[in-house]
Amino acid sequence: MNETRKLKAVILDLDGVITDTAEYHYQAWKATATELGIPFTREFNENLKGVSRMDSLKLLLSQAETPVNYSDEELVRLADRKNKLYVELIETITPADLLPGITKFVDDIRSAGLKTGIASASKNAIAVLTRLGVMDQFDVIVDVTKLKNNKPDPEIFLTAAAELGVKPADCIGVEDAASGVDAIKGAGMFAVAIGNAAHFPHADIVLSSTTELNFLKLAQTFEG
What we know:
Elements: E1 9-12, H1 22-36, H2 42-45, H3 53-61, H4 72-90, H5 102-111, E2 115-118, H6 125-132, E3 140-141, H7 155-164, E4 171-175, H8 178-186, E5 190-194, E6 205-207, H9 215-223
Parallel strand pairs: 1-2, 1-4, 2-3, 4-5, 5-6
Helix pairs in contact: 1-4, 3-4
């Protein structure tokens, strides 16, 4: 263990960690696929988790029975259409949609005097956090529109650390997607994964759900 590191910040993904908007994404992609006459299943939807909107659209179009070619303008229009459907769906989110254990976990981090950040690929992160009533619980929300690279590239986590004014080695990152965990590790941070351990060979700790998030235990493991 590196004796010089000291826990100063916890940086969290949004979807699947703070709240689960996966169902809304699924419904919006499903509607988009139906309009285009492309088959779309929950199983295939797993491939889109943690992936940018445009890359998700390209994956979806690759499922067309006959190859399709769209201009860049048409691709942007389709991606915007999906986002409009998604935004309509997330307008129903309330604080009751916070995942179990998250409120206490974030409270404990802040009570300990540590900083908090959000590193989400979602361009709707601020809208979602506002509806959840937790915008004031995070010191930094990375503006994904200003980034060059998507997860698993570490740019989003490195940006969060820089904006928080802390070294990456002094941060814990929390994710629910393998690409996100790879981004955390690529940034040189301690990685906590939420989900099935088989999916996260590179995580430092894997918890089966957010209910297992315990700040004191995590801090002890980090500093150990």
